[in-house]
TrEMBL record:
InterPro entries: Acyl_CoA_acyltransferase, GNAT_dom, N-acetyltransferase. This is RimJ/RimL family protein N-acetyltransferase. It holds the Pfam family Acetyltransf_3. The keyword Ribosomal protein does not apply. GO terms for molecular function: acyltransferase activity, transferring groups other than amino-acyl groups. Residues 13-169 form the N-acetyltransferase domain. PROSITE patterns: GNAT. Keywords: Transferase.
Length: 178
């Protein structure tokens, strides 16, 4: 088991910033069509690297990001869970968003719910008072996670950045007051 400096942990998960050594696993997850079904498109390795760099930059700037998440037992990269800063044009932006993307071999084990719940605690520690989450209305698995972590349905909307991906709209927006 490798030793990693975690920013915080949950019972089974460790949360940290992104490392160059994450790229191959992260890129494989992001290039998988099934994992990326509710996103515009699978990502290339360069797009995954750029995303990791954006997340580390966001962490330096805001104190949070979509964190690299490892299984504490093995040190294996599970995917990402955390918060982002959304600024697309909508009645509820700018806002703090919570989200997750997990490698499909780890689906249906409660990791997204456990990790998202711990990230809400972290958000509260940072003094964040309100967190939103959005997903394609067809993404029942992500919406179920939102409900399990105590978020409440707010509204459905057409995401302005997804106009070319009509199959992803409408999106459902959930919120929680911390």
């Amino acid at each position: 088991m490798k030793t990693t400096q975690h920013l915080f942990t949950s019972p089974r998960l460790g949360f940290r910033t992104w490392q160059d050594s994450d790229l191959d696993v992260f890129s494989a997850m992001n290039s998988d069509p099934e994992t990326m079904k509710y996103f515009e498109k699978p990502l290339s390795k360069d797009e995954s690297k750029a995303m990791m760099e954006r997340m580390n930059s966001m962490f330096k700037d805001k104190g949070y990001c979509y964190f690299a998440v490892e299984l504490l037992e093995t040190g294996e990269l599970l995917g990402m869970i955390g918060m982002g800063w959304k600024t697309f044009e909508a009645e509820f932006t700018p806002c703090v968003d919570i989200g997750w993307r997990i490698r499909k071999e780890f689906w249906n084990r409660g990791y997204s719910t456990e990790g998202a719940s711990r990230c809400l605690d972290f958000a509260k520690e940072l003094g964040i008072q309100k967190v939103l989450s959005l997903a394609s209305s067809d993404n029942k698995a992500s919406i179920r996670v939102m409900q399990k972590i105590g978020m409440e349905y707010w509204l459905d909307f057409d995401h302005p950045d997804l106009k070319k991906s009509k199959h992803l709209n409408p999106c459902s927006l959930y919120q929680i007051i911390l």
